Amino acid sequence: MTSGRAGTRPRRFVDTALNVILVCVGAVLLFHPNGLLGRSIAQWHREREARLIVRESWPRLLEMGRPVLSGTSSVLLVEFADYECRFCQEQHERMEQWKTESDNPSVIFIHFPLRSLHPRAEGAALAALCAEQQGRFLAMHDHLMESDKWVDDGNWVRDAREIAIRDLDRFTQCLINPETRAQLEAEVRLGRHLGVSATPTFVSLEGIHAGMLSGEDLEGLVGSYPSKRWRPTILLLNQQDQLRDARNLVVESYSEKGQASEQRWAVHLRAGSVVA
Q1: pTM for this entry
Q2: CA 108: distance to chain centroid?
Q3: Burial (CB count <10 Å: 0-12, 13-18, 19+), residue 169
């Protein structure tokens, strides 16, 4: 009997030790930054921080932005976009469709040219700002989003003439005015403060959505507001998807121009122009 009891003690010790080890391993798997619970906690912190930054910056967003869509619902979105960005151009087409739908959102626009990827984007943004000074922002905005001939030559005066800007001399002077560039830089800095690194990016009081908004996304936002507050997760593209999409865009763009696309992609990547 004594021998039997003595034999159970090591087994109990081993069982207890194994249970402790399993609990520790489980805790590590759960709470590790890459663990299931760890990822959820980190995501919650990112969402909370993003909402705080957005609410702090909201007055500046409303001050800097200009309306591109006057909606009928209570939803207000701020769009950061780049005129040379193909995703932004596709998003513009979708927003044109929203105009014909009921219960659509209001959208205000802030310039965020991705200079390292799009060499004409900054000039296009300046042209839009100068058109805005003469009350023709929406006309220039639609023109730049729906036409791509300006990408080849950047003839902004021609584009101004096409949208019936009256004072072309004033428009030309505006393009080289340091105050115009300072205004553009202020908008870019605001976007960076919010963590914007890709276009289009949409901002609301409840968070940030990086990437295009589909019709289903829009229906979800409008349909749940104001009866429910919009509480999206931060729909940032994951690193692999963002790099893949950016690579495909760069390669396709340079291939069309007959340039060494893969080499240009490597240059963009080394320069840090693609931010995941």
Answers
A1: 0.67
A2: 14
A3: exposed
